[in-house]
Design brief:
With 276 residues, this protein is mainly α. It contains 8 helices and 5 strands, in the order αββααβββααααα. β4 and β5 form a beta hairpin.
Length: 276
């Protein structure tokens, strides 16, 4: 058995790691336990700064019809949020870029790349993506990812202290393997859990906004066609397309009930895609 008292650096690192888990405990909207080590105000400031930098470095779409359409969908999605869930005002920017992607950042920022409109071909499909991205923010996934990475690095530093540094080839190989083990065993599974959670929360959010949840399945079929091959799911930060499609299809009936309630309350978005 290891005598931890013989290794002050290890004891210090482990103490920091344990305190981090104790102090940073949080719960996601689905009840999943999370690690949040950073204040939300700091996360928001980081999101705002990152968004401003991206606007300065990436061409912004000047097509008024595209911008109006994306903002119509985004505004409908964010209007479905309650005051306790997140910001009521979100800045939405369309970037001129061929990649099929979008993102949302703490601080109320949404970015959409024009390439996404080639895959998300209807308002409901676009709402699926934006609901998913906003859900990442609502669930504090950015904080969780940063916190988990920090805690994992602290643990690996503790192991390095125990190994006495990386002076020998054997130690270097061992630490390299430990790093891979941490990546596959801790960081990637957390990321897949976040993606699945964002799918679930995002589907409900877009349904609350009055969009058709059945189109979420169509969207990911489009993504599968456009995306080509994927790495094995256990080595990917995202669920496989097939896993995602199956999980969403299973949740569509409950999301349809949410949408029906939203429609009765008057949520009926009418966002017209720009003509091609």
């Amino acid at each position: 058995m290891l005598a931890i008292s013989r290794f002050p650096m290890l004891r210090s690192s482990l103490t920091v790691l344990l305190l981090s888990y104790c102090v940073g405990c949080a719960t996601s909207p689905t009840g999943r336990h999370q690690l949040h080590l950073f204040p939300e105000s700091e996360m928001s400031q980081m999101g705002i700064e990152a968004f401003n930098q991206l606007k300065a470095e990436t061409p912004i779409c000047q097509d008024a019809a595209i911008v109006a359409y994306v903002r119509c969908v985004a505004n409908a999605v964010t209007a479905a949020l309650t005051s306790s869930e997140g910001p009521r005002q979100w800045e939405v920017v369309v970037f001129e870029d061929p990649q099929a992607n979008a993102f949302a950042l703490p601080g109320g920022k949404i970015g959409v790349y024009t390439g996404l409109l080639q895959v998300a071909q209807t308002q409901d499909q676009l709402a699926t993506v934006l609901g998913h991205e906003v859900a990442h923010v609502l669930a504090g996934h950015g904080n969780e990812r940063m916190s988990t990475t920090y805690a994992t690095q602290t643990g690996l530093q503790a192991i390095q202290a125990l190994a006495g540094g990386t002076s020998s080839p054997n130690a270097e190989r061992a630490l390299a393997l430990l790093g891979v083990g941490a990546q596959v065993g801790v960081l990637l599974p957390f990321s897949r859990a976040q993606e699945a959670e964002a799918d679930r929360l995002g589907l409900d959010l877009m349904a609350r906004a009055g969009f058709d949840p059945q189109q979420s399945v169509v969207l990911w079929k489009n993504m599968a066609k456009a995306g080509g091959g994927q790495p094995p799911e256990f080595l990917s930060t995202h669920p496989s397309h097939q896993s995602r499609i199956q999980d969403l299809a299973a949740r569509v009936p409950s999301a349809e009930r949410i949408r029906a309630d939203a429609r009765r309350r008057g949520a009926n978005p009418q966002c017209s895609p720009p003509r091609k």
